[in-house]
Amino acid sequence: MAAPQDVHVRICNQEIVKFDLEVKALIQDIRDCSGPLSELTELNTKVKEKFQQLRCRIQDLEQSAREQDKESEKQLLLQEVENHKKQMLSNQTSWRKANLTCKIAIDNLEKAELMQGGDLLRQRKTTKESLAQTSSTITESLMGISRMMSQQVQQSEEAMQTLVSSSRTLLDANEEFKSMSGTIQLGRKLITKYNRRELTDKLLIFLALALFLATVLYIVKKRLFPFL
Asked: Where does the pLDDT of residue 17 fall: very low under 50, low under 70, confident under 90, or very high at 90 and above?
């Protein structure tokens, strides 16, 4: 059965390896970080916590090594502790380099954004000028359309007045036509009546002439042929 001290040493080594891998992963995250600065700060905070846990476990392992009864085991563990310390120092160096690389990248990105912001401002200015010119052109076009519509309305009013005048003329002509139609009908009636009266007069004249001739014949007969 393993002694409790050996179990403690094994647990310390396992946790040291685990914290070392976590530190390396966080350092890689810092290398890959492109900002913002708050994200870098958060990653550095996590790295500090992992370094603190790693340092505590290395100190526990060193304490366990010094408590070993056998000198050989003691020296072996102290050598492991020294290796872990060197690896931690190497991780700290990599951490500083990663921070430097990340900060340079963030600075370059911020400069690029500032330059792009200047370009955007110029572009916005150009866009505003273009929009103002377009708006002026549209306003002129609308004013031209308004003038054309005003002319069309005026022409429509004149056409409407002409139509009203023509309508009145037609109505007057229609009234005159109705009046003339009545006059023509009256004249026709008078002519018909006159024709009838003329026929009656002719008939009366013919009857009167026949009566006159009959009277003359009667008188001549009485004088020439009294015996008859």
From this structure: very high
Between 17 and 158, the more confident residue is 17
**Residue-averaged pLDDT of the chain:** 82
How many domains does the chain contain in total?
1
Q: Among the residues of the chain, which ranges form H helices?
A: 4-32, 37-66, 71-224
Helix orientation angle between 37-66 and 71-224, rounded to the nearest 10 degrees: 160
- Does residue 106 lie in a domain region? yes
C-alpha span between 33 and 102 (Å, rounded): 6
Q: Which domain does 72 fall in, by range? A: 1-116+160-166
36 lies in some domain: yes
- Domain of 42, CATH number, reads 1.20.58.400
Model confidence at 109: pLDDT above 50: yes
CA distance 43 to 46: 5
The residue assigned the tokens 């009234």 is: 175
Say which residue, 74 or 116, is predicted with more confidence.
74
Q: How far is CA 199 from CA 16, 60, 130, 187, 196, in A?
A: 153, 161, 100, 18, 5
